[in-house]
Amino acid sequence: MDRRSVAMQPTYIMELPNDLCAIERSVDYLIERAADVGFDTERLCLNLRVGLSEALSNAMLYGNCRDPRKRVRIEARLGPNEVAVRVTDEGRGFDPAHLEDPTTPLNRQRQRGRGIFLIRKLMDRVEFNETGNSITMVLNGSRTVGGPGVRR
């Protein structure tokens, strides 16, 4: 995975409490704002909704270890042709290169490990910072629902 950081000039910055109840409202808000600027609503309602929800829940549950004193930061740049969202937690981070493949027979029964897999399938580009406590997800408006390169 290319570890270059995506240059972002955020148009929206949100600081969320480390509370899973904050996810849905925050995701809905960003989807509405992206639709307002003309981004494909079908891709927003599936790709961005699932990808961002997974990133936020991972940040809260695993990055911040459910600690209510910690926060999660969202930075989003929204345009008609591209949506870029960065989610950063206050945790120690992890190495995404060492995630196990959740599609192998040994890992299919495990309860964890599908979030990053889903994010990578739904978004056009996914990058992590060096620490592993920040994920940047990019969704291009030129494709349709179904993941990178898939056209319907």
Residue windows where pLDDT falls under 50 for at least 5 positions: 1-5, 144-152
Quaternary structure classification: single chain
The N- and C-terminal alpha carbons lie at a distance of 27 Å
What is the average of the pLDDT values? 87
Class from helix and strand fractions: alpha+beta
The gyration radius over C-alpha positions equals 15 Å
Strand proportion, as a percent range, falls in 15-25%
With strands numbered from the N-terminus, the spatial order across the biggest sheet is: 1-2-3-5-4
Described by strand count, sense and barrel closure, the largest sheet is: 5 strands, antiparallel
Strand tally: 5
Question: What's the total helix number?
Answer: 3
Q: Could you give the topology of this structure?
A:
Layout: E1 12-17, H1 21-36, H2 41-63, E2 71-78, E3 82-88, H3 115-122, E4 125-128, E5 134-140
Helix pairs in contact: 1-2, 2-3
